Amino acid sequence: MAYNxxxxxxxxxxxxxxxxxxxxxxxxxxxxxxxxxxxxxxTKHRGRILEQQAHWRRAVKRETLxxxxxxxxxRCCWRNCECSDLDMLTLDHVKNDGADHRREGFSxxxxxxxxxxxxxxxxGYQTLCANHQLKKETTRxxxxxxxxxxxxxxxx
Length: 156
Ligand SMILES: [Zn+2]
Fold this sequence. Notes:
The protein is mostly helical. The chain has helices at 5-14, 16-29, 31-67, 98-103, 110-118, 130-155; strands at 89-93, 125-129.
C-alpha cells in the first residue's frame, strides 16, 4: 500500500482525542522509558532540532510582523520609517498594554507571534522597529510624567 500522508493526517485529525488518550495511557505506564526516549532523541539530534526551532521562530516572526506591518508588508508602521530588517522589527501593542500581557505570560517573541496567527491575527498590534518602540515608550513616559506633575501642582 502506498504511503498516503494526506490520509494519515485526516485520520489523525479525526481521531485526535482517542489518539491523545492512548498516548497518555502509554506515557503513564512507561513514563521513565518515554522520557529516556525523548532525551536520547534530543541528544542525538540536538543540532538539527535547535536549527529547526530557530528556523520556525524566524518564519513565524516574519509572517506575523508582515501581517502587522505597514500595508501588510515587513516594515515598521511609524510614519516615514523604512526599516524592514527582521532582526530589528518588533511586535507592538498599539494601546501600550504590553506590560499587562507580559504579566499574563505573553512574551512578544515567536510564541506570541504563533499565538496571534492561531487566533486569526486579532486587532491591537503593529510592527515597529526597535528604535520606534523605544521612541514610543519614551514619549509615553514623558507625557505621563508631565501629567503627574501637573496633577501634583494642582492639588497643592
Ligand atoms: Zn521605525
